[in-house]
């Protein structure tokens, strides 16, 4: 049972990050491989400004990190275990209720 405030805060941060479909797509893309913002914006079909806001949220939540690469900055998951956690969470949710959708799936906002 979770009773330690820090455990609850950690899970809440992860939940806030997953609350937005764009951030979910970003996390799934970065699970596959580190990427540059321009490539992510193109792959997700969103503006760089919008992407920047979502990446800032994921950085603030501690889920992604920046890696300097010459004059560019690459993004990657803060820990490779986050990729496994995303896979496990998706599999568990599908196993429990594969025919359900969340009524708030289009919720906007940040951490």
TrEMBL record:
Gene3D superfamilies: Winged helix-like DNA-binding domain superfamily/Winged helix DNA-binding domain. GO terms for molecular function: cadmium ion sensor activity; DNA binding; DNA-binding transcription factor activity; lead ion binding. Residues 3-97 form the HTH arsR-type domain. GO terms for biological process: response to cadmium ion; response to lead ion. PROSITE patterns: HTH_ARSR_2. Keywords: Cadmium, DNA-binding, Metal-binding, Transcription, Transcription regulation. CDD domains: HTH_ARSR. Metal-responsive transcriptional repressor for the cmt operon. Binding of cadmium or lead causes the repressor to dissociate from the DNA. Homodimer. PANTHER family: HTH-TYPE TRANSCRIPTIONAL REGULATOR CMTR (PTHR39168:SF2), TRANSCRIPTIONAL REGULATOR-RELATED (PTHR39168). This is HTH-type transcriptional regulator CmtR. It comes from Streptomyces griseus subsp. griseus (strain JCM 4626 / CBS 651.72 / NBRC 13350 / KCC S-0626 / ISP 5235).
